[in-house]
Amino acid sequence: MKTSETEYFFDCHCHTMTLGQVDITSFLGNLLKNADWEVLMGIVGGSAKSSDRRISSHVKNILNLLTLMQNDLLSIFNTMEDDLRGKFGGESLVDQNGLHMNGQTYHKLVLTPLLMDFKPAPGAKSLTYYPQPGKELRTVINEYSFAIKQYYKERPDGLLQIFPFLGINPAAYTQKELESIIKDSFDFYSLKRMTHSVRGSGLLTWMARHISPKKMFAGIKLYPPMGFDPWPEDKKEREKVEFLYSYAQEASIPITTHCNDGGFITVDYKHALRNTNPATWEKVMENYPDLHLNFAHAGVSTTLQLSSLFGKKEKSWTERIFDLMDRYEHVYADFSFNGISPKFYEKFSLQLSELEEAGRTRYKDRILFGTDFMINLMGIRSYRDYYSIYNDAKMDQELKHMFASVNPLSFLNL
Fold it and tell me: Which letter does DSSP use for residue 277 in this model?
């Protein structure tokens, strides 16, 4: 049974993390690095009333994010749906028929929450005197499995279908450990290849009914700012990533990699930028040309580049991604987080029109809608607000539909 293209709306890039799952030292360090320190220091010793007035919007954003992260995973899933239903403010975007976006109704919202692997690589230095307590990746996987099953049990007619991506850093594991985790996590792909008659909505429904730690993942998440190297020089480390790429390519398992100059950077900044740069992935794609690879955040820079100040004409990361799209059939980009501002869509539409003027049209079926929730709460009030901005964005309606409903099907190999 083949689904109609209007049946599903996809959030191809979101996060659902609890405080118990993250490396809280690194997490808070990244949240606070751009804080308004004069305001923070001014709070100390002041009256409660005056202190409240002096809290910056940045600090309020942090409090909003941490408030949500105090919940368990099930509560976070419920909150995301309830927010779209207008429970916390604003007009509801959902009714009994589904999610209403861009003049269409989508019966289900498919989430692909990206797990983060906070396990440090061997030899990594700690920022604290006492060792940071770690939660094993398999424990986090079990938590997700339980929460997803509970969501379907408690909300059998709920809006969401949830297919997480496995976050993993090969450098933090031995070859044997890595192979064990990957093969266990993607066992359902073997069944999928044997079930050629099940596609589209039938496959999604089948997957939703078979949630277990071995049958719930839809892809892999890689994160260079925390130490992942797409193409290591070290022979043993290279063998690990080559196993991962070979397995993913053979089973058509999609991979999302972080791709902007921000994020949770826990390694040397220059090292993080080198491994995040799309140019670093060119060697990977040469060797694995059929890999389904999504560059998260579309390579959009978060800081002013010195090269632009001095007139140096270097290709932006976004331009490099579009180059890879032209060369490889399964290269994608999502614009998660960027959509917190209506101005982004105006600039993005202009950039896309310039591509067409240059005769490049392959982007149309390679761009994916993503929110970067919960991290986007650093710049926006709510999950619902992100959808509302996308709904009102001055962008071709057909393209908006393709980005959120059509293109994800091919990226996820559904």
Answer: S
Nearest CA-CA partner of 21 in 113, 122, 158: 113
Residue partners of 186: CB distance under 8 A and separation at least 6: 166, 217, 247, 251, 253
Regarding pTM above 0.70, the answer is: yes
Contact 116, 17 (CB under 8 A): yes
pLDDT cut 90: percent of the chain above it: 63
DSSP per residue, 96-123: TTEEEETTEEESEEEEEEB----PPPTT
Residues 123, 126, 132, 134, CA torsion sign: negative
Distance CA 342, CA 375 (A): 18
Residue 357 · residue 316 · CB < 8 Å? no
Q: What are phi and psi of 406, to 5 degrees?
A: -90, -55
pLDDT digit string, tens, across residues 193-212 = 544 444 455 656 656 665 66
Helices of type H across 163-223: 175-185, 188-194, 201-208
Q: State the angle between helix axes of 137-154 and 73-84 in degrees (0 to 180), rounded to the nearest 10.
A: 50
b (16+ CB within 10 A) / e for 26-40: bbeebbeeeeeeeee
CA-only gyration radius of the chain, Å: 21
Query: Domain ranges in the chain?
Result: 8-19+72-411
Residue 292 has pLDDT above 80, yes or no: yes
Predicted confidence (pLDDT) per residue in 74-102, tens digit = 999 999 999 999 999 989 999 999 999 99
Task: Say if domain 8-19+72-411 classifies as CATH 3.20.20.140.
Answer: yes
